[in-house]
Amino acid sequence: MLNNQHIEIVKSTIPLLESAGPALTQHFYQRMFSHNPELKDIFNMTHQKTGRQSVALFEAVAAYAKNIENLAALTTAVERIAHKHTSFNIQAEHYQIVGHHLIETLRELAPEAFTSEVEEAWTAAYLFLAQIFIDREGELYLQRRQAVGGWANARRFIVSQKTAESEFVTSFVLTPEDGEPVLDYLPGQYIGIEVKPTAGEHNEIRQYSLSQKPNGESYRISVKRESGEFKGLVSNYLHDEIAEGDVVNLYPPAGDFFYQEKSQPVVLISAGVGATPMQAMLQTLADQNKANVTVMYACNNDQQHTFKKQTAEVALENNWPSYSWYLNDTGADFSGELDANLIARELPLDNGDFYLCGPVGFMESVVKQLEGLGVERSRVHYEVFGPHTYL
Predict the structure, then answer these.
(1) Looking at residue 200, what is its pLDDT?
(2) Largest CB tally within 10 Å, which of 29, 126, 172, 341?
(3) Could you say which of 29, 64, 126, 137 is catalytic?
(4) pTM for the complete prediction?
């Protein structure tokens, strides 16, 4: 059981953690995958190659150590990570494996500092945090299993429709193989999809935003083809090899980023494939006859403008202002990077809720712009692709 002495000891190790940096979590992952290679079918191995997962885990460990006396400061992060864990179907027994390798990593990297007292304190601290996650994830699993159309573990879905939405984004409509209803979700949430790419060694699980309003019968995800140094293993497999009629496994919808029904105005701000959760929100807001909605979108050019026609139609039908920015092209309302200052007079700065989705750098820029315009941070909601990132 975690006590005050344990807390003081954990806090005393913060300088040690900071001196080790992400190298600590890199060692942890190497150790864990060496001893438990079956976990490679759960973790995103591309994030291991890029180092993003190691950095994210280190930041989470450091944040826990620094806030161990004030866990309320971590409530948002815990909720976000718990939702992500359920989309990977993480179970209680996985925490035992992770805890073992975390303790052994600390022992191996700092043998002199890792005394029996430090081991006892970190073990107690880890078990305490693990139980928070186990309990919360257990609640989420139970809710989804008992709800109409809900299920536990993986469920087989057929790709019933595949549609190109822009140069790099393709939508997939997924219908349950068993023909039974599917669980509703909150607009903005995502779903976990599990596939076995022909170019990969392991099963791969990825999370993609649901890009249409709930209908009780099917799901739609819209996937960007990822290129560059670390070519997207799953996204390219879905684009190039998955066809209509193929079967994939899905885990129930999850995510703590979603439209929160309130009376105040709504502003949807996205870039690139960040438009996907916004489509579910737009369709839902239209059904509700929401009066005060503003849409802001940025991308490189017209060919990459995802859901351009659909967004324009719903905005026109509902008399909602919609603004676009193209970084490397003409034809949008504005050129260059998205700049909220250009339409500040049109925005509900005093009482609106702002929903953001896109690359981290884009969202950091928008958050700073909104703060500069006087928007309280509590009215800014965001979704981050990949490992949890603090904005």
Answers:
(1) 85
(2) 172
(3) 137
(4) 0.91
